[in-house]
Design brief:
14% of the residues are buried. The chain is built from no helices and 9 strands. It is 0% helix and 58% strand.
Length: 125
């Protein structure tokens, strides 16, 4: 984890994010890779940078709020019947919330980079 110190700016555009190839069972088109780096924990929530290179993949989402920094994507929400229930377009400046368990398909024509905030996982009893 890169540590974001109080009152110390971090240039997230230049922050190195190491990507790994999307596994075959999640890849839909192209040769996309994804990577992330956590940069801070604030009030129990983790803040980080995530990016995906060009291509398409499916995913099962976690609770998250994010802001797109660069790139673009079309994201499809898949309903319980396996059909596309909703489609959104993302670009720099888009703010979005995902909920745990959502099934999605990401179509990324140019590398997408976002800042995410995920809540602290609830402790197990």
């Amino acid at each position: 984890m890169t540590t974001l110190e109080p009152f110390q700016p971090l240039d997230v555009a230049d922050l190195g994010v190491v990507g790994t190839s999307v596994p075959d069972d999640l890849r839909l088109e192209g040769e996309p890779s994804t990577g992330f780096i956590d940069v801070a924990v604030v009030g129990g929530a983790t803040v980080g940078i995530w990016e995906m290179t060009a291509g398409s993949m499916r995913d099962i989402e976690a609770d998250e709020v994010f802001v797109v920094l660069s790139g673009e994507a079309t994201v499809e929400l898949i309903g319980e019947d396996g059909r596309v229930a909703r489609t959104i377009e993302l670009r720099a400046g888009s703010l979005c919330r995902l909920e745990s368990g959502m099934l999605t398909r990401w179509h990324v024509p140019t590398a997408l980079r976002k800042i995410y905030v995920v809540p602290d996982p609830e402790p197990e009893p």
